[in-house]
Write a structure and sequence with these properties.
Shape: flat
Distance between the termini: 26 Å
Radius of gyration: 26 Å
Strand content: under 5%
Low-confidence stretches: 297-307
Mean pLDDT: 84
Length: 307
């Protein structure tokens, strides 16, 4: 089923969706059964606990509390591994289903966006795996002192590690969220930039929610990474949407002039006035230096769709 730009009746779309879902489900089930095999299972679980092996008793031995839990735990590991292995196939069928409905201009934005989302997610998972897991679990296991002995339960560790990796992967999508919120005009760049202190507090709260525990290393590590990603996203927004940002800064300066009170001696108020004036004058000068650009004519695309 290749990706083709075509129209089809509603029930044809339902039939295509059913076929693609069936393919994905069968592929994930087959991959799960393959990963359930002893050799692949041992390799997967060793890979997963490798960063924290030295902080567990008996060089990384995990404990199963009952015979039924052994099968459940092995199946959970196999399912996660099978889902990861088949993720490229799943992504392909998602694209193949939605791409025909998009215009050429929309496709140009979709492919880089999805590629960036995948890279950011993988980057977040790798950051958690190589940088955060070892010091985080070292601090957690060090809390068992005195008569308290650590008895690592396999299911608890699998859940904790999975949530930690997913939390970092999803949180690393922040640059895309900020990029499109500002790009679509939902957020104003100058407001986001000037209120960075509040944003940093929000990022700290997000990091506390995204990490599965209250240990300091994952929280602080994720907070630091989110701040870097946030600043990077603002830099990219400034580069891509510079004209729109300059127009917003000019509008913000002109709007503030309408309500400006010269007699107001408040230091914060006057500092805001000076900042908006500086940004507005600089943005107006930048806009004047830009060459005239022809406006995109979307009506032709709509007319072609109606033919």
């Amino acid at each position: 089923m290749p990706i083709q730009a075509k129209r089809a009746p509603f029930f044809d779309h339902v039939a295509e969706l059913r076929k693609r879902l069936t393919i994905c489900i069968v592929a994930v089930v087959a991959a799960t059964l393959a990963c359930y095999q002893k050799v692949i299972f041992i390799f997967t679980i060793n890979l997963l606990i490798n960063p924290i092996r030295h902080f567990l008793p008996d060089n990384g031995r995990l404990n199963i509390m009952g015979p039924f839990e052994a099968m459940t735990f092995r199946f959970q590991v196999a399912f996660i591994a099978g889902l990861i292995v088949m993720s490229p196939l799943i992504l392909y069928h998602i694209f193949a289903f939605f791409m025909p409905a998009l215009k050429e201009k929309e496709r140009k934005w979709l492919i880089p966006t999805v590629s960036a989302a995948i890279l950011l997610f993988v980057g977040g998972v790798l950051f958690a795996y190589f940088v955060i897991m070892a010091p985080g679990f070292k601090w957690l296991t060090a809390q068992a002192v005195g008569p308290v002995h650590l008895l690592p339960a396999a299911s608890d560790y699998l859940q904790g590690m999975t949530l930690l990796l997913l939390g970092f992967g999803v949180s690393f999508e922040l640059p895309l969220v900020v990029f499109y919120l500002i790009g679509f005009g939902i957020l104003k760049y100058h407001l986001v930039r000037s209120n960075w202190r509040y944003v940093y507090v929000i990022l700290f709260v997000v990091a506390a929610i995204a990490t599965p525990d209250w240990s300091p290393w994952p929280m602080l590590g994720l907070t630091g990474a989110l701040i870097v990603l946030y600043e990077t996203s603002l830099f990219m927004v400034r580069r891509v949407f510079h004209k729109r940002i300059w127009e917003q800064e000019v509008d913000a300066w002109e709007d503030f002039q309408l309500e400006y009170e010269p007699d107001n001696d408040d230091v914060v108020y006057q500092a805001k006035y000076a900042r908006l004036k500086r940004q507005g004058e600089r943005a107006k000068k930048k806009l004047a230096e830009l060459p005239d650009e022809p406006e995109d004519d979307d009506d032709d695309d709509d007319d072609d769709d109606d033919d």
